[in-house]
């Protein structure tokens, strides 16, 4: 997006042209004491003195190359240029509001119910008890810091009240007329508004993405919930199948135990029959042996 509208660009361009006229063509610095040569060109008084010194009493205009005798030339003050310079300096001076109570310290708080401006100390002293309920607000001087002065040599009296997006730096009016003459610049106040608009746009975009992300998270939560429910149902079914299988195997094991017990009883019976048969055979064998054995008794002779 463009940071400066067409009207602001035209105003800044016009201001740049006017400020450019305040630059000394010899020193390329803002003129502090503008003087006009007979040829019509304006230079700073210090620059004219340097030209006279370099030319051994002859002043050569750096613009049209006209020469003048330093002892005879009349160096009139360019009143219009001087008023413009003083006016620009005045743009950087901020009116200080003094406390209505002590008339010493800077006022930082405005009390709507008292209708007075207070410094912090006087406000704390006055607003005690019921007066604490008075409606009040901080003045701009209390919440806004003074803009710093430019550090460029020759620009120390001018505040950094312009911003150059191309160089991403704050500049003063003199910087805008010299090193940033062909650059797009705009006032710091506008920069704050544009930054606020960009921030609000970013917040709105972030809110949209947050809502979209929230809907996606809700959809994912539903899918997860569905998968968890499905997994729970499948686990329940598997548990039921396992329990049924365990019951079936248990029943089969009980049936097998009964069969084994029956077989064991049958074997025990057979073993008993075998023992009886063996016992009977043994008895029969003994009887046969007794019957076939020779008699050891002899009949006595007559």
Task: Break the fold down into its secondary structure elements and pairings.
Blueprint: H1 6-20, E1 34-36, E2 42-44, H2 45-54, E3 58-60, E4 67-69, E5 76-77, H3 79-91, E6 109-111, E7 116-118, H4 120-126, E8 136-138, H5 140-143, E9 162-164, E10 169-171, H6 173-177, E11 186-187, H7 188-292
Antiparallel strand pairs: 1-2, 1-5, 3-4, 6-7, 6-8, 9-10, 9-11
The largest β sheet comes out as: 3 strands, antiparallel
Shape: rod-shaped
* Relative strand content: 5-15%
**Terminal Cα span:** 167 Å
- Helix coverage percent: 40-55%
Low-confidence stretches: none
In the sheet with the most strands, the strands line up as 2-1-5
How many helices? The count is: 7
| Overall number of strands | 11
Query: Which class do the helix and strand fractions yield?
Result: mainly alpha
Q: Could you report the average pLDDT, rounded to the nearest whole number?
A: 79
Rg, rounded, reads: 58 Å
N-to-C SSE string, H for helix and E for strand: HEEHEEEHEEHEHEEHEH
Would you give an account of this structure?
By secondary structure, the protein is mainly alpha-helical. The chain contains seven helices and eleven strands. The strands form four sheets. It has a three-stranded antiparallel sheet with strand order 2-1-5. A hairpin with a 4-residue loop joins strand 6 (109-111) and strand 7 (116-118). The model has no long low-confidence stretch (mean pLDDT 79).
Write a concise synopsis of the structure shown:
The chain is built from seven helices and eleven strands. With 302 residues, the protein is mostly helical.
């Amino acid at each position: 997006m463009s940071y400066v509208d067409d009207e602001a660009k035209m105003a800044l361009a016009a201001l740049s042209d006017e400020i450019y006229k305040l630059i000394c063509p010899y020193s390329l610095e803002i003129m502090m004491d503008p003087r006009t040569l007979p040829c019509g060109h304006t230079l700073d008084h210090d620059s004219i003195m340097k030209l006279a010194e370099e030319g051994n009493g002859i002043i050569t205009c750096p613009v049209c190359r006209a020469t003048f005798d330093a002892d005879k030339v009349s160096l009139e003050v360019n009143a219009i240029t001087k008023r413009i310079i003083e006016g620009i300096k005045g743009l950087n001076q901020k009116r200080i509001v003094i406390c209505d109570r002590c008339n010493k310290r800077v006022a930082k708080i405005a009390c709507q119910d008292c209708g007075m401006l207070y410094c912090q100390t006087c406000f704390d002293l006055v607003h005690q008890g019921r007066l604490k309920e008075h409606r009040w607000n901080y003045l701009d001087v209390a919440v806004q810091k003074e803009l710093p002065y430019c550090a460029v040599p020759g620009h120390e009296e001018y505040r950094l009240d312009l911003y150059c997006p191309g160089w991403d730096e704050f500049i003063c009016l003199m910087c805008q007329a010299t090193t940033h003459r062909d650059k797009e610049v705009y006032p710091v106040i506008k920069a704050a508004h544009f930054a606020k608009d960009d921030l609000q746009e970013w917040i709105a975009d972030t809110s949209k993405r947050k809502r979209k992300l929230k809907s996606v998270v809700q959809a994912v939560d539903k899918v997860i919930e569905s998968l968890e429910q499905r997994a729970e149902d499948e686990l329940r079914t598997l548990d039921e199948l396992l329990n049924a299988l365990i019951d079936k195997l248990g029943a089969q094991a009980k049936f097998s135990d009964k069969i084994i017990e029956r077989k064991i009883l049958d074997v025990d019976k057979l073993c008993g029959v075998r023992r009886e048969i063996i016992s009977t055979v043994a008895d029969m064998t003994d009887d046969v042996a007794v019957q076939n054995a020779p008699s050891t008794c002899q009949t006595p002779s007559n």
